[in-house]
Amino acid sequence: MFNKTVLTRSSSCADAITVDAINGTAAVLYKNGTVYSYKNVSRRAIINFMINECASLGFFVNNILRDSRVSYQQIWLILITQYWLIVIKQHCLILIN
Question: What is the pTM of this model?
Fold first, then answer.
């Protein structure tokens, strides 16, 4: 339940976030098409975000992922016809447009 969960909510910031509360990781597909992966994310914050369906993706990005202990890197994105395929280390997230 708490690993490799994809969250898609209405947001002007991001299209989707995948989170893994067990490993403390996240990945964000931003509206501009860039994808970043994040490590050392608070597991408590991930679980709270997953449970609270009212919290926005932008809130999670701005208040949780911008914490000083969180490390990040830009990763790549492949567009295949109408599918976004985001490869994030050990998980694979497929979004259908």
Answer: 0.73
